[in-house]
Amino acid sequence: MMWDVLWLDARLATMTAGGRPYGMLEDGAIAVQDGRIAWIGRHDDLEGPPAALAKQVHWIDGRWITPGFIDCHTHLVYGGNRAREFEQRLEGASYAEIARAGGGILSTVRATREADDAALYRDAVPRLKALMAEGVTTVEIKSGYGLESAAEARQLSVARRLGESFPIEVITTFLGAHALPPEFEGDADGYISYVIETMLPDVAETGLADAVDAFCETIAFTPEQTERVLSAARRHDLPVKLHADQLSDLGGAGLAAKYGALSADHVEYTSEESVAAMARAGTVATLLPGAFYCLRETQQPPVAAFRRAGVPMALATDSNPGSSPVTSLLLMLSMGCTLFRLTPEEALAGVTRNAARALGLADDRGTLEVGKRADLCVWDIDHPAELAYRVGFNPLAYAVKDGRVRQV
Ligand code: NIG
Ligand code: FE
């Protein structure tokens, strides 16, 4: 029996925890069979000449291989953009003020409802390609700009279609509780009832979403309203995530932990108590430095406390038209280190091992290990720290999705 593909003369950052930094392995080789890693180790430990071992052999000249990148928090599918609000914020208006005046998320809701499916798809493609060009092989995409049943379903199905059309896996998240739509003005509780009695059962039945998210914040939903969504999602057996503690501490991350959330995201204002609850629940802290940067926030997430408590930290683009018009995960590595004081190794774990965990996919991808999906990035670098060190430079030689070299 021969392997499908064999990569040789590689340096490997396996990103497995607990061993050498970055899970490094020099003089490495990786063999792939049926889209999964079949063998990994030192070249010298291969039994036999490469040509006899695999149908296809790639000698890569000492280049580094990491797990394929995973962007575990995006809002990639939406209509319009919010460049005008960017100007307003620079003139002094805050994100929350713009939201309260009916702009912000609601302005994207209007544009998304007006856009037809073809336009939503067409606008998302270049953003998806930008992520892929930097080695993203799995991306999470949320709804949350429809805020009524059909429009939310449209966003989710466009996201699914992107995953079917491009060599990247799309994981979808239903974010019906993102903002209060105009039809329910003054009746947030009524809207939450609509979310859990109408939208959520639809989403669960059609299988359009892999998880459920909500926005717990003073400008969005209260902890009580959020809790109704999380518990309804659990009743439908859907895993949960939460936009938590971004602009204030409402105890959101603790609430997420109470429902066994895969992740609590943003988490700038998360308290020590919530950090402890996350550690107990195994909830990942997903850090979103793009939103922190674009909103010129100053409150940093409690990275030292997460580290002490053993809360895994993921990093993502939060790609969205308002708080984070970002389509570079490499830039998030840099910002994670410079703005949030992650180490380059933590940053890289944040877009591989811990991002997989934030999507409930830790057993399937996120590290280079036998049995895991053969999603790989091949980099023209001399050390993995370079991925976080350089700004605005893309050293990707190529990515591999399910064992196939990807042409972007
Ligand atoms: O993750 N925080 C809430 N939701 C998005 C922003 C969405 C928007 O402003 O359109 C976020 O930052
Ligand atoms: Fe977000």
Automatic annotation (TrEMBL):
Subcellular location: Cytoplasm
Tree of life domain: Bacteria
Keywords attached to this entry: Cytoplasm, Histidine metabolism, Hydrolase, Iron, Metal-binding, Zinc
GO MF annotations in UniProt: imidazolonepropionase activity; iron ion binding; zinc ion binding
Main location: cytoplasm
EC number: 3.5.2.7
Cofactor: Zn(2+); Fe(3+)
SUPFAM superfamilies associated with the record: Composite domain of metallo-dependent hydrolases (SSF51338), Metallo-dependent hydrolases (SSF51556)
Pathway stated in the Swiss-Prot or TrEMBL entry: Amino-acid degradation; L-histidine degradation into L-glutamate; N-formimidoyl-L-glutamate from L-histidine: step 3/3
Cofactor annotation comment: Binds 1 zinc or iron ion per subunit.
Residues the record lists as binding N-formimidoyl-L-glutamate: Y145, N320, G322
Keyword Hydrolase: yes
GO biological process: L-histidine catabolic process to glutamate and formamide; L-histidine catabolic process to glutamate and formate
Top-rank EC class of the record's enzyme: hydrolase
Binding residue positions for Zn(2+): H73, H75, H243, D318
Pfam families in the record: Amidohydro_1
Domain Amidohydrolase-related: 64-393
Binding of Fe(3+), residues: H73, H75, H243, D318
Function: Catalyzes the hydrolytic cleavage of the carbon-nitrogen bond in imidazolone-5-propanoate to yield N-formimidoyl-L-glutamate. It is the third step in the universal histidine degradation pathway.
HAMAP family: HutI (MF_00372)
Family under the similarity heading: Belongs to the metallo-dependent hydrolases superfamily. HutI family.
Protein name according to UniProt: Imidazolonepropionase
Species this protein is from: Ferruginivarius sediminum
